[in-house]
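Two folds, back to back.
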Amino acid sequence: MKPLALTMGDPAGIGGELTLRAWQALHDNGPCFLALDDPARLAALSPHVPIAEVTSPDAAPSVFPTALPVLPIKLAATPQPGHPDRANARAVIASIERAASLALRRAASGLVTNPINKAALYDAGFSYPGHTEFLAALTGAHGRQIMMLASPTLRVVPVTVHASLRNAIATLTPDAIVAAASTTEAALRRDFGVAHPRLAIAGLNPHAGEQGALGDEETAIIAPAVAALRKVGIDVSGPWPPDTMFTAKARTRYDAAICMYHDQALIPLKTLDMDHGVNVTLGLPIVRTSPDHGTAYDIAGKGIADPSSLIAAIQLAATLSQRRATATRNTA
């Protein structure tokens, strides 16, 4: 299998440290990955990790057991931990663009992204709410992208993502719920190997609206979406009261929870398993994962960042890529 492409993320954050520690954890048994980064800055972060510059992803598998393969993306300024520098914005964007291109051309089996700081990228022309939307535009899937957060204990998909709570409620529609649930169901089958996916749809209001006494979004918006999904044969239940649907017993009844807004999905996921949570973008023609945390400027450069989420993201990307490749061969 081709190597995974790993982006640099914000050079002032913890991404470089995590990349080096992920290689230390995985170089014996894989999965193999290729860092699109500045070799000099990685070497400065940890002189004990051998760095090997490569000119092509094809060289990565033979190099990976003994050194971290790096496809060079030169930075304009020396990074200062905890202090993002707009001078490096173009390199950060180039790392994402090139990694996406490698995945689209099947030169890389998938894409794993280190965390970025969007504000530090705006002067370089970055105008997207986040990685997810940028990658959707780069891969021609704009408007079809869906964010899933996955861990060994829970998978969640927010229907509305990077919006204020007020705007999330205002833009919630049956069509948006149907689109998110349909994409999730297809991804669970193809990429996650779930033969008969079961989806639980969260309510929006306390007690799922209490039959309209605490809000009518459940009856006016969510229930019609549930009916539409059942009509096309998707195994879906709800709307469920959000305060009880994430208990251990409740989680045994579904394979993914479709949530109405960002925090409704991410709070239970991060509470249950912050270290192994992975951000997965569904609806793209490529596999993309990311650790479920930010740049962590407060601990950058201190050598204490936990690589568990990045390692989980790399391992999950490899698994999804393999399943997707198998599904493609079986349908060819």
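---
second:
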Amino acid sequence: MKKLSLSLDDIFNITGARIYNPDSFKTIYSVSIDSRKIKKNSLFVALKGERLDGHDFVKEVVNKGVTAVMIDNKKYKMFSSLVLPVITVDDTLTAYGQLANTWRKKLKAKVIGITGSAGKTTTKEMISSILSEKYKVNKTVSNYNNQIGVPLTILNTNASHEILVLELGTNHFGEIAYTANIAEPDFGLITNIGNSHLEFLRNKKGVLREKSELFKSVQKNNGTLFVNNDDSMVSNSVKNYKNKVTYSFSSKAEVKGKLKGQSKEGKEIIEIKYKDKTIDGAFYFGEQSAKNLLAASAVAFRLGLNKAQILNGIKKYKSVDKRLNIKKYKNHITLIDDTYNANPESMRYAFDLMNKISVGRKKIAVLGDMFELGSAGIRLHKNLSKDITSNKIDELLLIGDLMKNLKSQINQLKISVTHFRDRVKLKNYIKNSGLNNSVILVKGSRGMKMEEFVKTIEEKINA
């Protein structure tokens, strides 16, 4: 199979590109922004980040045998003595995106774009696991879903891949449109619209407006949309678009899901029907995982997988680190590590999961602030009290300035609640607590580093 490559004409097509030493240009077979992973016959693009500037590593990658380097045109004097092709552009990040779009046009792989307020990473992983039973799949690694991560993933996709599953993240207006225009997805899926990134997206209508840029990009390519009919904001946004596959637990849809209870260990028993096909069994923990699986199944059905392939892919799926990870220990202790991030919707799903797997056991929630909620932050933290009481959580251990608002609300209720100003004091409290016969949830936004408290709990259990 012929390897994908970039030609001199491809480079000339980059907006504002100027090429020095073009006579020594050789075909480019890979593009890199990481000097540590640079390969021969590759183009190094010097990006300026918050901590590091790629221009500081240009001479290092030249010594490693790169084919060419791409730099900011203002930096050219620093590298005018180089004898290999030097490509200057107005902005290396923009040019990097254009390179990725050029690469994407050369791919034979079908591109699936995924975004949403909650569950997008897990849904991406489920889709990738299931589709790998029939296709050669590449996917977004970890959460590389931004203006750098999306191009990076595209440029790491090769001619042998048949499917590319891309996660598109955002916290500012315009970011989804930017990455979607680079990716030109054939398929699009929005998991849901919730109260996420409100600091910049203002409200749920703003979230919908931003996330819908993915659907607009797919429609522009006459592609297929996967539409969650359980989310009215998502379904109403594309009522008149014909080329779509709908899925739902509670509404009319082509792919229909049914929650039939929980297994003895607390997994959701799910039935999923599409035309004459039925998938059923006890799959994963929690309502959100069931919703993610329904979305992934809709994609799998549309792309022609049979029942055996879907079931095999479900079995092979491995839960994403720090996202509703269920860990069971001695003395009837269950730990739910959901420390990757937090918003009001994902908090609710986590509380619901606690309730379902905690029969006869104490429920302890260790919670940190939810970030990027803007002016709605105080209200949304207070509102968590409704889900906490409905799920009958016994004890709350809180940390962060915003969680003070939850404490003030909870103080009016018959729930044990302690707010800690100091991380060390919370860790010491955990170390001296009785955790036997309990279910413990640890959750908060990424910046709260709640995984440190997971480590404290595990050290206490294993002591």
